[in-house]
Design brief:
The protein folds into two domains: about 10-80, Elongation Factor Tu (Ef-tu), domain 3 (Beta Barrel); about 100-185, Elongation Factor Tu (Ef-tu), domain 3. It has four helices and twelve strands; from the N terminus they run E-E-E-E-E-H-E-E-E-H-E-E-E-H-E-H. It has helices at about 60-65, 120-125, 155-160, 180-200; strands at about 10-15, 20-25, 35-40, 40-50, 55, 75-80, 100-110, 115-120, 135, 140-145, 150-155, 175-180. It has a six-stranded antiparallel beta barrel. Strands 7-8-11-10-9-12 form a six-stranded antiparallel beta barrel. It is globular and about 55 Å long.
Length: about 200
Amino acid sequence: MFSGIVEEVGLVKSYDLTRMTVEASTVLQDLKVSDSISVAGVCLTVVELGSGAFTVETVPETVDRSNFGTLKVGRGVNLERALALGDRIGGHMVQGHVDGRAEVASAEEDGNSVRIRFTCEQELLRYVVEKGFITVDGTSLTITAVHPDGFEVSIIPFTFEHTTLNERAIGDTVNIEVDVTAKYVEKLVSPYMSAATAEAGVK
């Protein structure tokens, strides 16, 4: 479990779609083999530790769901270690289970913030609500606007400077994790909604 508060931006040293080695410093302080770590919003398991770097493994499901299929060596990735019991949670409850991808549609300055608009599929958008939580490349953000084809977020200067959001260009894809609560609510109420629809049809 994570909070979506990025600890540092690591650098991809190597990646062949199965093993990824990331150069880092802060997250290595107490990292151990078998620990979970969020890499660009994806929960992965540390399989090897080296000097100034760690290695994780990815499987086809990981590549298919995330933007890892286009991840290049030398690219920055947001990193966060798993939460420890008793930690303050400054963001929101993040699983590191990416639901899909979104595309950067626009980015513009808005006062001292940067307003970024993303487009995404309706499958994801159904769980997106204004002022709700969303995780973009492992960063916990608040949704400021919802559109028929996507959503917007407003980035404060600190977050913009200390995450990979400042490296993203128009057309880039990012990893998205929606608030898991919305998915649970949908699953719980769907039988009742189906029954109500069927009853309405009979009448």
